[in-house]
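Project outcomes to date are best conveyed with an example. Our students and postdoctoral researchers have been running inverse folding experiments weekly, and each run begins with a structure described purely in tokens. The record below, which covers 596 residues, was selected by the lab manager from last quarter's runs and is presented without edits.
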């Protein structure tokens, strides 16, 4: 088919993608939004009341609590900025919703997309990013519902495809496809070690949230983490139906719970970083599942089971700047696809925090992409970035790849309780599989999509394992049995990237210096790793956070190498760059913060 041309292409139709499209369209640019299913259907952030606390003492208290729960890796200044944006945009959304009556969040925002002239393409999963002759991201290509190819050329792209839950919930939505696409173009990631979030869900399918947990003896457990510890030891955990966390009274105009959004009512964040929503969108129980009322009359308490959320419930994702720009020119990221350490730190993603981040990051990325497109224009030619799982024929069953990835990610012994031994074992097996995924996965039509998703799951699993091995402490959701305590010198963020060779280094978030994507054609079915680019020295320390610059610039400067067996013919390493002083001949950065 002929390529569609637009100014801004948004990949992903959850709240972050929708807000990005609306924000970009407000600046007068043409916008196309594509989603792998229906817009708004599968996002983790739709069903929760976004974290919104007006300025004042309540907000200050909420931010202090969130900062503590996140292991002091979050950025209180950024939390204020996110809350400001969220409150402003939800006010706008309420005004838009009144035009159609008491519409809920999703329908109000979807109507706004239509009113803004955004072209929406549903059931259009993305397979590859496009880059121009200079390596700047210039669109994307993928499959339509009829398995034919679609192509959109654009002046800038917003990646809002969500995170990766390793198919733990049975849905093929959160498979990390966008993260793989971005990494193949040379993008860097951050916080991938914070990918071990588990939800406790009813073993009988009751669609409710519990505020308290109990063991076999009926003893109340202190928090979400204590409940997971009990399960990891082989015992059962229950939720009592008298402790349901659902709405108990009036709802607001979007179908959420009580309208007061204070530090204690919208979300209760435990010391372990787990969140319990007291205002989940009301919804009927799905067919075949037990409703809360039916369960209350029959069992009284409900057995719970852990379900891995991966980066969907964690903080890891693409490294972005204040305007959502990634480390690759022309590419922006929002929502779960972007690293959320600024708001979550090392904590489990609370429903409200995730909802607020989706709004704020979507607005910023959409506006940043629109400004980029207006300055750059739409390139006349672009070519796909080569990637894994895209061969014309498949010599590996994607299900075998998925099975191995799940074996090393889903069990509590693999992701909740980590150690150097278990992580090195996982890395060795996952690394050994990667060359085959690059050279042997592929096919046509739906098989091609399955192969691509399997490659993405494998790539994300490797980034999480390498990052977890590099962080030799326990903080927030990241728990090391061989390093059980939090270390003061580990109050830093880890960036990561690479495909054939994974790298991890200490670094900091904030403003990043864009780099170019891969420019030259590479042999079919395989691509070299992107350059190991440095993070810009123009980085502001987050309030209350010690953070440093990445100092590893080449293999000669590697200061620490983990010792596990390498796969024959493959170079793999976890690299930790020690913090270093600036060279004497480099002028001091006047914008850098001074440690207190």
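After processing, the design step wrote out the following sequence:
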């Amino acid at each position: 088919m002929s390529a569609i041309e637009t100014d801004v292409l948004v990949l992903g139709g959850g709240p972050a993608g929708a807000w990005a499209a609306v924000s970009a369209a407000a600046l007068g640019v043409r916008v196309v939004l594509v989603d792998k299913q229906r817009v708004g259907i599968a996002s983790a952030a739709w069903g929760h009341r976004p974290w919104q606390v007006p300025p004042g003492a309540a907000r200050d208290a909420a931010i202090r609590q969130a900062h503590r729960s996140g292991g002091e890796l979050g950025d209180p200044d950024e939390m204020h900025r996110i809350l400001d944006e969220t409150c402003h945009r939800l006010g706008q959304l309420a005004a838009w919703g009144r035009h159609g009556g008491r519409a809920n969040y999703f329908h109000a925002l979807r109507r706004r997309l239509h009113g803004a002239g955004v072209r929406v393409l549903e059931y259009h999963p993305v397979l590859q990013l496009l880059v121009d002759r200079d390596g700047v991201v210039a669109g994307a290509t993928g499959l339509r519902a009829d398995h034919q190819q679609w192509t959109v050329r654009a002046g800038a792209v917003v990646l809002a495809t969500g995170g990766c839950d390793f198919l733990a919930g049975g849905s093929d939505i959160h498979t990390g496809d966008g993260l793989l696409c971005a990494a193949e173009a040379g993008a860097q990631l951050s916080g991938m070690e914070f990918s071990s979030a588990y939800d406790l869900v009813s073993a009988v399918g009751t669609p409710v949230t519990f505020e308290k947990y109990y063991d076999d003896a009926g003893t109340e457990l202190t928090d979400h983490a204590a409940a997971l510890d009990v399960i990891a030891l082989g015992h059962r955990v229950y939720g009592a139906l008298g402790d349901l966390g659902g709405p108990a009274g009036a709802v607001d105009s979007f179908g959420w719970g009580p309208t007061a959004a204070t530090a204690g009512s919208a979300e209760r964040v435990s010391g372990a970083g787990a969140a319990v929503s007291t205002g989940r969108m009301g919804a009927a129980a799905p067919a075949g599942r037990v409703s809360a009322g039916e369960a209350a009359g029959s069992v009284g308490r409900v057995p719970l089971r852990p379900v891995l959320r991966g980066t969907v419930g964690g903080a890891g994702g693409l490294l972005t700047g204040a305007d959502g720009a990634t480390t690759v020119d022309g590419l922006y990221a929002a929502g779960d696809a972007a690293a959320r350490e600024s708001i979550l730190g090392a904590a489990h993603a609370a429903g409200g925090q995730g909802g607020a981040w989706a709004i704020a990051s979507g607005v910023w990325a959409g506006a940043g992409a629109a400004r980029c497109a207006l300055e750059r224009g739409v390139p006349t030619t672009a070519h796909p970035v080569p990637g894994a799982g895209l061969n014309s024929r498949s010599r590996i069953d994607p299900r075998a790849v998925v099975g191995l990835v799940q074996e090393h990610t889903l069990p509590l012994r693999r992701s909740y309780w980590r150690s150097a031994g278990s992580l090195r074992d996982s890395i060795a097996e996952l690394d050994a599989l990667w060359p085959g995924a690059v050279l042997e996965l592929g096919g046509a039509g739906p098989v091609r999509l399955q192969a691509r998703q399997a490659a993405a799951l494998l790539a994300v699993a490797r980034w999480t394992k390498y990052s977890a091995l590099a962080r030799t402490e326990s903080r927030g959701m990241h728990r090391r049995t061989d390093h059980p305590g939090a270390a003061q010198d580990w109050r830093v963020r880890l960036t990561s990237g690479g495909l054939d060779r994974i790298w991890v280094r200490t670094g900091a978030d904030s403003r990043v210096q864009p780099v170019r994507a891969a420019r030259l054609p590479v042999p079919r079915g395989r691509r070299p790793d992107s350059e190991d680019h440095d993070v810009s020295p123009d980085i502001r320390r987050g309030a209350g956070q010690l953070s440093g610059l990445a100092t590893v610039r080449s293999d000669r400067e590697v200061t620490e190498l983990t010792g596990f067996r390498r796969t024959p013919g493959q170079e793999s390493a976890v690299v930790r760059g020690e913090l270093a002083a600036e060279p004497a001949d480099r002028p001091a950065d006047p914008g850098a913060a001074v440690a207190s």
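The domain at 4-77+110-195+311-379 is CATH 3.50.50.60 (FAD/NAD(P)-binding domain). The CA atoms of residues 370 and 399 lie 39 Å apart. The training component of this project remains on track.
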